[in-house]
Design goal:
This protein is α/β, with parallel strands linked by helices. About 40% of the residues lie in helices and about 15% in strands. The protein folds into two domains: about 1-125, 2-Layer Sandwich (Transcription Regulator spoIIAA); about 165-295. β9 and β10 form a beta hairpin. The two termini are about 35 Å apart. The structure holds iron/sulfur cluster.
């Protein structure tokens, strides 16, 4: 299989076949993101995808889900995505669905008919890094869209029958705005009705614009304790039915995972209890990419 530069997938796609259709991210400019900084964006040649599918048909014939990598594979045109789906189904007849990372502008660029076509081709539970429901935070993160545009695209995806997951970065608005950020995020996600919500803290990676902004005093980072406060407030505000809440990333200080609304109280109890078990010096430290300070 071809995997060039950095390759990422959401934790819950661990059992999906990863098929590279682009390298890097077509945006590659979010303030906090270091994922593809050193990988130039380009689209994989069709011959390369064909070769990978021949290999997959030989070695992963049991695959039921394919996740297209890398950063925002949904940036490909509808024709390209439809052709790739046809090739996947022909090579791997057991595949039931196809996912990928998608940016809000990738959705905007497709008509309602195109989104509906992609749904019929098996695209489902595409992963959208929404991150925040506050316009100034989205602008600060340089996400390239505002909340109104995101809201509109969620409605279009539902209308097209194309389900999606969302990522929310709790504590991204800083310590003074924990309640405001949690309430705005919960309201947006309640309206969006995703299949799954992936929550994680904002961590400042060296070499990112966010690291420079932090150093220049233009951004105040939340502590792990403040992150947990916001995660609890966010989860309290969710009124969703039949939605997975996924907080199992290595950067989540208290791992929680469950189905809403069934497991909401149990997850809240675990988060609250976690805050009492984590040593104060860890709660007062800042979120990191790894698992330091994480409860088992
Ligand atoms: S769209 Fe995603 S992968 Fe691309 S720069 Fe932003 S966070 Fe990183």
């Amino acid at each position: 299989m071809h995997y060039d530069g950095m390759t990422f997938r959401p934790p819950y796609e661990a059992y999906s076949l990863l098929l590279q259709v682009t390298r890097g991210c077509s945006h590659n400019a979010c303030t906090f993101c270091s994922m593809y900084r050193d990988t130039s964006f380009c689209v994989s040649p069709v011959e390369e995808i064909v070769d990978d599918l021949v290999e997959a048909a030989r070695d992963y014939a049991y695959a039921r889900r394919v996740f297209l990598v890398n950063g925002d594979a949904f940036c490909l045109s509808t024709d390209e995505l439809a052709t790739i789906a046809d090739m996947i189904h022909e090579s791997l007849p057991r595949v039931e669905s196809i996912g990928c990372y998608a940016r809000i502008p990738n959705v905007t660029a497709k008509s309602d008919e195109e989104l509906a076509l992609l749904a019929t081709k098996g695209y489902a539970d595409i992963n959208i890094g929404v991150e925040s429901a506050l316009d100034d935070v989205l602008a600060f993160m340089n996400k390239g869209y505002d909340v109104a545009l995101a809201r509109e695209q969620f409605a279009r995806l539902h209308k097209a029958g194309l389900p999606f997951n969302v990522n929310i970065i709790n504590a991204a608005a800083g310590p003074a705005r924990i309640a405001e950020h949690a309430a705005a995020n919960a309201a947006l996600v309640n309206e969006a009705r995703p299949t799954l919500i992936f929550v994680s803290p904002l961590h400042v990676d060296p070499g990112t614009p966010l690291a420079s902004l932090l150093e220049a005093g233009r951004f105040e980072e939340c502590t792990l304790g403040q992150y947990l406060e916001e995660e609890i407030a966010f989860l309290e505000g969710l009124t969703l039915e039949d939605c997975v809440f996924f907080g199992l990333h290595v950067s989540n200080p208290v791992p929680v995972h469950g189905l809403l609304p069934r497991d909401k109280d149990a997850m809240l109890a675990r988060l609250r209890e976690g805050m009492t078990r984590i040593p104060r010096e860890v709660l007062d430290s800042h979120p990191a990419k790894g698992s330091e300070g994480r409860l088992r």
